[in-house]
Amino acid sequence: MTEPCNVVVLISGSGSNLQALIDSLNESNPARIRAVISNRAEAFGLQRAQAAGIDTRVIDHKQFADRDAFDAALMEHIDAYAPQLVVLAGFMRILTPAFVRHYQGRLLNIHPSLLPRHKGLDTHRRALEAGDSEHGCSVHFVTEELDGGPVAIQAAFTVRPEEGLDALTSRVHAAEHVIYPLAVRWFAEGRLRLCEQGAMLDGAKLPATGHLIRT
């Protein structure tokens, strides 16, 4: 039996990916969400966590002199839960190098594009404007390079003719809710790891685009 894997989730908003993670938890899944931490007191995701009986914390970044001070306080709160994994689920903060190094190999993020395409913001509009035939989302290990860490898993789908921004956004959200719980479970089971060679699944190096699922 795999030992439980303590997880801390960081959010800033509605927490739909957090809800997908909560919904994926069961006796066969070794992941255990110990706490949900937000930099915004009004984040609806905090209510989702509380409804599931999960500890919540608010650490308001505006109460700190700079990013380094905020990240230091954030690390202290996270480490109180002794997590094996820290999950970014719509956490709208650029993390300091010290924070990223502290959680190296145990920090995951989900990005709404098929990395390395469309790093940064406004990915769905950029995909449409570029005329991309495919779009999707990526779960990756976080490194000091913004949206540049090794990819663990991607969900890809064909962009439909005349597809609008709202429809595309909804399809990406649905795909995120599939692959993020899967990546977290793989990590909790000891199957997904970050090594010097890159992201590894079941001891084999993943390609640059990670494990691909078509939806």
Automatic annotation (TrEMBL):
Statement: the UniProt record of this protein carries the keyword Cell inner membrane: no
Protein name as it appears in the record: Phosphoribosylglycinamide formyltransferase
Gene Ontology MF annotations: phosphoribosylglycinamide formyltransferase activity
Residues reported in the UniProt entry to bind N(1)-(5-phospho-beta-D-ribosyl)glycinamide: 15-17
Reaction catalysed by this enzyme: N(1)-(5-phospho-beta-D-ribosyl)glycinamide + (6R)-10-formyltetrahydrofolate = N(2)-formyl-N(1)-(5-phospho-beta-D-ribosyl)glycinamide + (6S)-5,6,7,8-tetrahydrofolate + H(+)
Residues annotated to bind (6R)-10-formyltetrahydrofolate: 67, 92-95, 109
Site annotation Raises pKa of active site His: residues: 147
Claim: Transferase is one of the keywords in the record: yes
Gene: purN
UniProt xrefs under InterPro entries: Formyl_transf_N, Formyl_transf_N_sf, GART, GART_AS
Pathway entry: Purine metabolism; IMP biosynthesis via de novo pathway; N(2)-formyl-N(1)-(5-phospho-D-ribosyl)glycinamide from N(1)-(5-phospho-D-ribosyl)glycinamide (10-formyl THF route): step 1/1
Keyword annotations: Purine biosynthesis, Transferase
Source organism per UniProt: Stutzerimonas nitrititolerans
CDD domains with a match to the protein in the record: FMT_core_GART
Biological role: Catalyzes the transfer of a formyl group from 10-formyltetrahydrofolate to 5-phospho-ribosyl-glycinamide (GAR), producing 5-phospho-ribosyl-N-formylglycinamide (FGAR) and tetrahydrofolate.
PANTHER family with a match to the protein in the record: PHOSPHORIBOSYLGLYCINAMIDE FORMYLTRANSFERASE
